[in-house]
Design a protein that fits this description.
The chain is mostly helical. The chain has a single domain, classed as Sufe protein. Chain: A (Alpha-Beta Complex), CATH 3.90.1010. The protein has helices at 3-15, 20-32, 75-88, 93-98, 103-106, 115-140, and strands at 55-62, 65-72. Helix 1 (3-15) runs antiparallel to helix 3 (75-88) and helix 2 (20-32) packs across helix 3. The two termini are 27 Å apart.
């Protein structure tokens, strides 16, 4: 499934909810389904700067694709990072670097986040793209 197909699927899933309280509950459920993040990797190296809550992201390069893992100590933020992981994992670095993450606006997520959560969201995306850039440069060598 492409990045855009994954985003369209998320937009469709969010469209069944009319109230934002229901969308937040859905985000919390998504966060609970996030695969476990190794406690040993909860280090400064993996901690996202710019997030009010604590968010850790790591990435592996497997068979030409990036696999992201993440965790957060805040339930809504964990749901948000869960969405990002589901959209960006298992793609080639170039696809991640060039992805237009339109689902953030189309679901209304961006406009319904507090300014600190919105800044955190941008910091998460930036870190995920930095991993993709790093893997792209290794791939070209």
């Amino acid at each position: 499934m492409t990045v855009n197909e994954k985003q369209n699927q998320i937009i469709e899933e969010f469209s069944v909810f009319t109230e934002w309280i229901d969308k937040y509950e859905y985000l919390i459920e998504l966060g609970k389904k996030l695969p476990p993040f190794d406690e040993k990797r909860k280090t400064e190296q993996h901690l996202i700067k710019g997030c009010q809550s604590r968010v850790w992201i790591d990435a592996e390069y497997v068979d030409g694709k990036i696999i992201y893992t993440a965790d957060s100590d805040a339930i809504i933020t964990k749901g948000i990072i869960s969405l990002l992981v589901s959209v960006m994992s298992e793609h080639e670095p170039e696809e991640i670097i060039n992805a237009d993450l339109f689902f953030i606006d189309k679901t209304g997520l961006h406009e319904n986040l507090s300014p600190t959560r919105a800044n955190g969201l941008l910091a998460m995306i930036k870190q995920m793209r930095l991993y993709a850039l790093a893997f792209a440069s290794v791939q070209k060598k």
